[in-house]
Specification:
Elements (H helix, E strand, L loop, with lengths): L5 E10 L2 E2 L1 H10 L5 E2 L10 E2 L20 H17 L12 E6 L5 H14 L8 H5 L3 H10 L5 E2 L7 H15 L4 E8 L4 H9 L29 E9 H6 L6 E10 L12 H14 L8 E3 L6 H15 L4 E3 L2 H4 L6 H15 L1 E2 L15 E2 L5 E2 L4 E8 L3 E8 L2
Parallel strand pairs: 5-6, 5-7, 10-11, 10-15, 11-13
Antiparallel strand pairs: 1-2, 1-8, 1-9, 3-4, 7-8, 9-16, 12-14, 15-16
């Protein structure tokens, strides 16, 4: 490896698999799906989703949480966990202008926007909350985190659809490499389980209709897959230079050694049929790291469980890393949390490298014969992984690839 490595010194997770890194990782390794039908979604085309369980902002120490949309609440909880793991005290910075926050989202505060639109229609403009826009903006998770931790460095909210969380980590690494920041809080957050989003995805025929068996609905790479299950959550990592982590006496969880981004420039929702843009991003990440495809020991795939995406992505992985590379999609457990997916899955890739355990692709029983890679399913698989690839692809043809190596 010849590229710049950013040390991951802390991870924070809020996912449908649980609140906190341990709860989320344990359930992902066990391969226990989280999809369920919810009574409050009755009347919608699809009533199934993967929700964060037992999320109580007040109980988790978020004072004034009413001012933050659900997606920003997720981001704050995940950030606090990541900083605690890194051994960093929010507000106790030697130079707060050297602390950056890069937190992406695809939808932003859609929970607030939809609820306040209902208020506008049913109760009139005088009842609309004055906090609607501050809570609904796409940059507000980043802004609220910066306020919460007293970070005065660059504060940016990449909006690259389902690649947003991965883009944030890649951009955060660039801030370290350029010398702009010493510490970067990076990741993504999303809370899109709303009537509008569910209905729109259903109209696109993107969602699974396996409502009689929701736990088996998200089944990436399976021959019987029929769409994704909408999820929510946040994934946040603390990035530092290796020298900075060493100076603090902190051993990283893993390192981000490569980042690549690209555009399909093909279609607003459908991936390029040959995965051209996705492959460009993966190969760019390899060049950045000074690695080849044969160096990849594991791929945490974008793997949404849609008929098109999975077979196209598998083709990209096969061309780049060969047929024997180990691949899984943790969306079999978490569903698809859109803009948070990339950072949640990068965190899972880092934990795979750290623990030497590859999580299974939950609910997948019969791998599509067109998928010519080693899909890990049925049970977790042990084995040392030196370098993991985490893929993230979004609407608009937005692609991001991260290479994560052992510490």
């Amino acid at each position: 490896m010849t590229g710049f490595a950013a040390a991951i010194t802390g991870i924070g997770l809020v996912t449908p698999a649980g609140i906190g890194v341990k709860a989320s990782w344990d359930r992902v390794v066990e391969g226990r799906p989280t999809a369920a039908c919810h009574a409050d979604l009755d009347g919608l085309p699809v009533t199934m989703a993967c929700r964060v369980p037992d999320f109580d902002p007040a109980g988790l120490g978020l004072r004034g949480a009413w001012q933050w949309d659900r997606y920003a609440q997720f981001a704050l909880v995940a950030t606090r966990e990541a900083l605690a793991q890194a051994g960093l005290a929010p507000g106790g910075w030697a130079d707060s202008s050297r602390v950056a926050v890069i937190l992406g989202s695809g939808a932003g505060g859609t929970t607030t926007l939809e609820e306040q639109h209902r208020v506008l229609l049913e109760e009139g403009p005088s009842e609309v909350s004055a906090m609607t826009l501050p809570m609904g903006l796409l940059n507000m998770a980043a802004g609220q985190v910066a306020i919460d931790i007293g970070a005065h460095g660059p504060c940016v909210a990449p909006c690259t659809a389902c690649a947003a969380g991965a883009s944030a980590i890649g951009l955060g690494r660039e801030l370290l490499r350029s010398g702009v920041a010493d510490v970067v809080v990076a990741g993504g957050a999303e809370a899109p389980i709303t009537p509008l989003y569910l209905s729109s995805f259903a109209r696109m025929r993107a969602l699974s209709r396996r409502l009689d068996d929701p736990r088996a609905a998200s089944r990436p790479f399976d021959a019987g897959r029929d769409g994704f299950v909408l999820g929510e959550g946040a994934g946040v990592v603390v990035l530092e230079s290796e020298e900075g982590a060493r100076a603090r006496g902190v051993r990283p969880v893993a390192r981000v050694v490569g980042y690549g981004a690209s555009a399909d420039a093909h279609h607003v929702t459908s991936p390029h049929p040959e995965g051209r843009g996705a492959e460009l991003a993966v190969r760019a990440a390899l060049r950045d790291a000074g690695l080849t495809g044969r160096d990849i020991g594991y791929v945490n795939a974008h793997g949404t469980s849609t008929p098109l995406n999975d077979v196209i992505e598998a083709g990209v992985i096969h061309r780049v890393a060969g047929p024997d590379v180990r691949v899984s999609s943790t969306k079999g457990v978490t569903g698809h949390p859109l803009g948070a997916a990339g950072s949640i899955e990068a965190a899972f890739a880092a934990l795979t490298v750290h623990h030497g355990v590859i999580p299974p692709t939950a609910s997948t029983t019969e791998v599509d014969p067109r998928v010519e890679v080693d899909v890990v399913h049925g049970a977790a698989r042990g084995g040392r992984v030196e370098v993991a690839l985490s893929n993230s692809f979004g609407f608009g043809g937005q692609n991001a690839a991260l290479l994560i190596a052992s510490a």
